[in-house]
Write a structure and sequence with these properties.
About 85% of the residues lie in helices and about 0% in strands. It is mainly α and about 150 residues long. The mean pLDDT is about 85.
């Protein structure tokens, strides 16, 4: 419904200058004088250049917002990947895993629900393996890392 209203408004805005021009000069014959057509061209060009400038500004603004969101996502995923790498070399693995868990939770909006739950399972599995409760699930680690790298690019 929103799209239909948007396109109706866009059509009204797009065609209104031509409709106004026709309503103003409808009683006149179509001119054969190039100067009259030049005036009409200036009118149309002036009106539509304003419209196109507004559209370009809005598109530029939206693209900037999308780009900012993508940069935040890449930064968040990069931090998570970096923390996963630090766990293996860390002397205090429990602290490193806790940092990973905090990163996962604080950056949840940047990953899919599926990847979020896999990240949580990975961190929990790592903690359990440290306590010798279960074996470290290497395939889960690879799957998580692959999913994060896919987002990171």
């Amino acid at each position: 419904m929103k799209n239909i209203v948007f396109y109706i408004i866009l059509a009204i805005v797009f065609f209104s200058p031509i409709v106004f021009y026709i309503l103003q000069f409808w009683q006149l014959d179509i001119s054969k004088d190039p100067n009259d057509w030049a005036v009409f061209g200036n009118y149309i060009g002036g009106i539509y250049s304003i419209f196109s400038s507004i559209v370009i500004f809005i598109l530029g603004y939206k693209m900037t917002k999308v780009d900012e969101e993508n940069n935040k996502r890449k930064k968040a995923v990069g931090l998570i990947l970096e923390q996963i790498g630090k766990i293996k070399n860390s002397k205090n693995k429990v602290e490193s895993i806790t940092k990973l868990q905090n990163l996962i939770i604080s950056h949840r909006v940047f990953v899919s629900d599926n990847l979020f739950y896999k990240l949580r399972a990975y961190a929990d599995n790592y903690l359990s393996s440290l306590k010798n409760e279960q074996e470290l699930n290497i395939s889960l680690e690879e799957e998580v890392t692959r999913g994060l790298k896919k987002i990171y690019g």
